Amino acid sequence: MFQPFHRSLRAFPNCLRCLTIVLISGMFGGMNAANAQVTSKNNAQLRKALKQFPAADANSDGVLTMQEGLAFRQRQKSKRNAAPAAKIPLTHADIAYGPHRKNVLDLWLAETDAPTPLLICIHGGGFSGGDKRTFHNSPLVPAMLDHGISVATMNYRLTEGGKNPYPAAMHDAARGVQFLRHHADRFNLDPARFAATGGSAGGTITLWLGFHDDLANPDSDDPVLRQSTRLTACAPSAAQPSLHLPTLLGWFGVEKLAEHGGGRPLFGIPPDAPLEMTPRVDRLSRDASPITHLTPDDPPVFFTAGRYRTVNESMSPNVWVHHPIMGIQLGKAMDVAGVPCFVSYEGGPAVTEFDNAADFIIQQLTTGS
């Protein structure tokens, strides 16, 4: 009877989950209001909760009781479960983070005195379309802000028929991370707690940033490029951990797959040229594959995908490119590397550690803060 209750605790920062555990311990240990009053004056977890969430002190007396803490926790849960009535106004819009016209980002800044963690949202679109405004109505934004996490969403160079092939999109996203770290004081961000999420191509970029060696160049004349590109956590959705066709054929157990329109421009292959695995394409597609760069020091991942179905050679490319097998194979590789990976898809085994990707992000960015 207690399992659903404990699962609901995962949606909240560690201090509030510990607050609830204090109350449970009291109930089963004989504690009651008549013989004990646990508050932030005599409980370390409540003191931590009060410091991180001063709004939980309902009567503003400077003391947080368990009742106040649990009531605050319930209000936060209700906010997260409710669909946003309207998009939340941006704190900053169209901030230029690089020289290209597509190098712009939007920011929602959490209203806290202490530097905040940051979730960076990267849009999808097959590397040839999409826009940062995809996230303007996303429930992720209020969910993060409610937990003191700021949010950024960025545009990046699209392939434009091969004009901007790999690694343009990845390097743009990396510069966006570096820009935000460089201006951490300006935006009240904690540069040590940056996570990323994105769907499809945005999820692939997220994983590539998460696994790739740090692109910081300490000798650069550009102070932005001296910053780290490393992340605390990654939460891709329907992403492609590999863009290397022979690898994908092996994963799916087929001899061929219907061509996806995003592949040629990403690797600079003209539309009228034969689609061949030349040494150049082999090298580029391996390097563009996040899984190529996976090492034991990489951040944990929560991978989300849709319904599992049997793959065949005539399957629509928009289906196989987002298939749960991508996450399953990534999970196997990360298990070998000793890096936590949680894979959630329709028809798959339940992820017991987290309710969803938002819960994962919140825990990764707030635990121990």
Q: What is the percentage of strand-forming residues?
A: 5-15%
Cα shape: globular
Tell me the structural class: alpha/beta
Uncertain residue ranges: 1-35
Compute the gyration radius: what is it? 22 Å
H/E topology pattern = HHHHEEEHEHHEHEHHHEHHEH
Tally of helical runs: 14
Task: Count all strands and give the number.
Answer: 8
Percent helix, as a range, is: 25-40%
Element layout with pairings:
Blueprint: H1 3-9, H2 14-28, H3 44-52, H4 66-81, E1 92-96, E2 104-108, E3 116-122, H5 140-146, E4 150-154, H6 168-182, H7 184-187, E5 189-199, H8 201-211, E6 233-237, H9 245-252, H10 263-266, H11 279-288, E7 301-307, H12 317-320, H13 324-337, E8 341-346, H14 357-366
Parallel strand pairs: 3-4, 3-5, 5-6, 6-7, 7-8
Antiparallel strand pairs: 1-2, 2-4
